[in-house]
Amino acid sequence: MKASIGLETPRPLSEPCSVECPLDCRISSWTSWSSCSRTCGLTGMMKRSRRVLRAARGFGRPCPSQLQQSKPCTPMPCYHLQLGDWSSCQLNGGDCGEGGSVRELTCLSHNGSGDDPVKKVEQSLCEEVPWREVMGALGEEGRQPELKKSCIVSCPGNTFSL
User: What's the rounded Cα separation, in Å, for the pair 89 and 77?
Assistant: First the structure.
């Protein structure tokens, strides 16, 4: 009857709708700190991370922006071995004949930055340094360096012909 007299049917004052429930972000715990990126020196870093397990929805608490952290490692001195040059032939008395030549293997320390002066330190601090790090440039990789060798100083008047 309302429609016949030109009136509209009343509409309900509320309508059903869907409201998303707020859901807070969930993140994992931090991983353990990684090992140091350098074995010695001042510039090594350690890292740890966490990940998003569930992103926030609706008006839930958002995820933190920091998912990775880094921090400097405890400074550790760098040690390396330096092989010295051969000495001149040292004779066991006399001016010519058979003798020996020596060279030193020196333990040095620095902080790895390149700015720190290299210092001679106690030899025992270099006990863990692999020989290949000392000898690689000399083609004797992996072997302990020779520190003494025999040598000969020719006597005046001795001539050899081939």
Answer: 36
The architecture CATH gives domain 23-76? Single Sheet (2.20)
pLDDT in tens, 80-110: 888 888 898 888 877 888 889 998 888 888 8
> Residue length, the chain?
162
| Domain boundaries of the chain, sorted by first residue | 23-76, 78-153
C-beta of residue 91 within 8 angstroms of C-beta of residue 75: no
In the structure, what pLDDT confidence band is assigned to residue 16 with cuts at 50, 70 and 90?
confident
79 SS3 class: strand
Query: Residue 138, class by beta-carbon neighbours within 10 Å (0-12 exposed, 13-18 middle, 19+ buried)?
Result: exposed
Cα–Cα distances in angstroms (integers) from residue 27 to residues 33, 58, 146, in the given order: 17, 17, 58
Taking alpha carbons only, the member of 76, 66, 65, 64 closest to residue 35 is 76
Instruction: List the one residue out of 97, 100, 98, 96 whose CA is nearest residue 88.
Output: 100
Mean pLDDT throughout 1-19? 69
